[in-house]
Amino acid sequence: MSFKKLVFSGVQPTGNLHLGNYLGAIRKFVALQEQSDCIYCVVDMHAITMWQEPAELEKSTREVTAAFLASGIDPKAHIVFNQSRVMQHAELAWVFNCVARMGWLNKMTQFKDKAGKDRENASVGLFAYPNLMAADILVYRATHVPVGDDQKQHLELTREIAQKFNHDYSDRIRDLGAGVEMKSGEETVHGFFPITEPVIEGEATRVMSLRDGTKKMSKSDPSDLSRINLTDDADTIAKKIRKAKTDPQPLPSETEGLKERPDADNLVGIYAALAETTREDVLSQFGGQQFSVFKPALADLAVDKLAPIASEMRRISADQAYVDAVLKDGGERASALAEATMKDVRRIIGWLGN
Ligand code: AQP
Questions:
Q1: Does the Cβ of 311 fall within 6 Å of ligand 1?
Q2: Average pLDDT over residues 212-227
Q3: Residue 259: Cβ within 10 Å count
Q4: Ligand 1 mean position to 151 CA, how many Å?
Q5: What is the CATH number for 278?
Q6: What confidence tens digit (pLDDT) does each residue in 250-266 have?
Q7: CATH number of the domain that 57 lies in?
Q8: How far apart, in Å, are the Cα atoms of 117 and each of 50, 121, 129?
Q9: Most exposed among 138, 214, 230, 286, judged by the fewest C-beta atoms under 10 Å?
Q10: Does residue 210 lie in a domain region?
Q11: Is pLDDT of 185 > 80?
Q12: Centre of ligand 1 from the C-alpha of residue 322, in Å
């Protein structure tokens, strides 16, 4: 027996869902549901690692759900829910708090970025965030995780946690017959948790700020002009692209020419991702052209692809009862799967009471 392919990923309900979240994650969620069983989670437990206004958190949780549905995720064929409904995530995170080493977490760059200079004042939850993320994935024994490039290090940690758990409890896993044979590089190993594969591919694994091509497009950037929000209307999208930072040179004909030009590279990458093509193809069409030609073409393409999602999000959001019903149903189905894993985990580690 080996692990069945199962996709898991999450998005934080922390407001301002943007083009980076869409191209780096949500659009891949939609594509993967054609080939595999998928579980998509609105990670409201991760959200409170930084202070969230409660009413805003509720609103954002529904908004991310609406974005999933508006983008084309099928909540009947797959599972869509908010994390806090399934308490097994927190239970497994505690186990992983005891598996992961301080030294591993001390290396996490996202904690350093988010905590900034005032580390002493950051929440313990923000520090332990990657252990909860590992639990989100492994409580379903998910094999594939589509994410943006910024999550690479956290997924590496998830793999380390799974390996250490499988190793520390290997005798017990065998005795209970709870393990599965799996490939790890060239070797075949035996373990309870899969060694999860990140799915980080395509032209937009790290969409950058429209105001600074060296900084990631982010929900928390104080400048709204830095990002295209999924709720932006056509005029706003066009205005933000018009105002996007660029340099005075025309576009190069080869990708080599984008190397020292982060703002140009970002816009070409966004175009390629939206058009579902490559940077090479975009440059074969626009190489030698000025931004005065390229930006309107990019704005038209962005409006074409994003405006239908924004209008569908508005339609779905107007029916709050429907959104809440999707989350409730998804939560119930996710709980059943998570509980099956936790029953085994509790026996493996020696917790009585199952
Ligand atoms: N700029 C980006 N380019 C590509 N992918 C991105 N993701 C985020 N930003 C980009 C991917 O979106 C998914 C959900 O992200 P998240 O909700 O966990 O939040 P985040 O990564 O912390 O997003 P932000 O926008 O950067 O928020 P703040 O400002 O709060 O830090 C993930 O798969 C992520 O990789």
A1: no
A2: 96
A3: 10
A4: 8
A5: 1.10.240.10
A6: 999 999 999 999 999 99
A7: 3.40.50.620
A8: 15, 9, 18
A9: 214
A10: no
A11: no
A12: 26
> Is the C-beta atom of 13 inside 6 A of ligand 1?
no
Residue owning tokens 């997924």: 155
Between these two residues, 353 and 217, which has the higher pLDDT value? Answer: 217
If you take atom 12 of ligand 1, which residue's CA is the nearest one? Answer: 21
Going from the Cα of 167 to the center of ligand 1, the distance in angstroms, rounded, reads 32
pLDDT score of 321 more than 80: yes
Ligand 1 geometric centre to CA of 240 (Å): 19
The ligand 1 atom nearest the CA atom of 216: 1
Domain of residue 281, residue span: 224-316
Token code pair at residue 317: 């959001």
Nearest CA to ligand 1 atom 10: 20
Does position 134 have pLDDT exceeding 90, yes or no? yes
Residue 354 has a pLDDT of 75
Which atom of ligand 1 is the closest one to the Cα of 114? 31
State if residue 298 touches ligand 1 by the CB under 6 angstroms criterion. no
Q: How many domains does the chain have?
A: 2
Q: Does the Cβ of 83 fall within 6 Å of ligand 1?
A: no
**Is residue 246 included in any domain, yes or no?**
yes
Tell me if 200 CB under 6 Å of ligand 1.
no
CA–centroid distance for 53 within its chain: 22
Q: In a mutational test of the pocket of ligand 1, which residue from 218, 220, 265, 274 has the highest number of ligand atoms less than 8 Å from its CB?
A: 218
Q: 144 forms bridges with which residues in the sheet?
A: 7, 197
CA distance 246 to 232: 21
- Tell me which of 5, 59, 164, 219 is the catalytic residue: 219
b/e per residue 146-158 (b: at least 16 CB within 10 A): bbbbbbeebbbbb
Same domain, yes or no, for 137 and 199? yes
Give per-residue pLDDT as tens, 65-101: 999 999 999 999 999 999 999 999 999 999 999 999 9
With 0-12 / 13-18 / 19 or more C-beta atoms within 10 angstroms meaning exposed / middle / buried, residue 291 is buried
Tens digit of pLDDT for each residue in 202-212?
A: 999 999 999 99
Q: Which amino acid is at 236?
A: T
Asked about 219 being catalytic, the answer comes back as yes
> Residue 339: in which H helix or E strand, if any?
helix 320-349
